Fold this sequence. Notes:
The protein is an alpha/beta fold. The chain contains 14 helices and 16 strands. The strands form 4 sheets. It has an 8-stranded mixed β-sheet. A 3-stranded mixed β-sheet has the order 1-6-4, with no helix packed on it. The chain is globular, with a radius of gyration of 19 Å. The termini are far apart. About 35% of the residues are buried.
Amino acid sequence: MLGHPRTDRLLRSFPGAEVIEICHYKDVFCRSRQNGILQHRSQKLIIAKKDGKLLYEGAPVCQSFGNAFFYYTSCMMNCIYDCAYCYLKGMYPSANLVVFVNLEDIFADVEQKMRGMQQDQALYLCVSYDTDLLAAERAVGYADAWSRFAAKCAPRLKIEIRTKCANRHYFESQEPLSNVIYAFTLSPQAVVERFEHHTPSLTERIACAAQAADAGFPVRLCFDPMIYVPEWQQHYEQMLAQVFASIAPEKLVDVSVGSFRISQEYLKKMRKQQPDSPAAWFPYEREHGYYHYPRALLNQMEQFLVSRLRNYLPQDKLFLWECPKA
């Protein structure tokens, strides 16, 4: 994809980088015997064109927030952050970053999908599942591109941009749109320090989310995935107090809650790559092809957090991911 305007932008962002031409990104990204742990210490950037299927139906492990037409797309693969529990470690054979520069092809597929829907129906599209677009915004600029595209497609398109970043400059340079939701994943600082490597602190994320909400951006808070740590009740209680000391509940679109869950295939690969990882080797339970915390612990964690959130938010703003029952 040499010569593409987005390729040129990326290369300008890394003027000292060595450029190696390849035939297809999978020749590098999908080769066998890669070590994701080592690659995360020095990630390489692969610039490519995405072909084949561009839109995917929302996965069972993800929340639809009541949207009937729930889809996601992947314009980047992998993340600059290195969360120990991230399903991407089991999903991809490589920890290197891939940026697909043919964003207009994805836009065209979205428009085609909307043309096949009734006029009173809206497409709900998550665009930041397999990466953190806001964390890479300075170099890539895709959150801004999606926002501008969503503005043209309102009200028939609603997008979610999920993030763990604290990119406050982005919200200073954008105008709020009612159909672009910014979903901030928040975790207690104990979880951030132990498992969410290279991410901003809880305090920094809260400050960014508060700034966005105060400026009128639709903000969703995601306490998902909940991660078990010793004295987890105390950590999550303190987190909520810190969150709602800075963010007015009435300014939030909604809140999601869900404990950690992952497909059995992804976890199998994570365990192979990370033989010493507490996140990978917790004694999870398997149901219907997915691993999650033992049912008693899962219910205790989720119900604890939901009960505390009810002190701040009405029930219709709380979304709890339901684990399939045996």
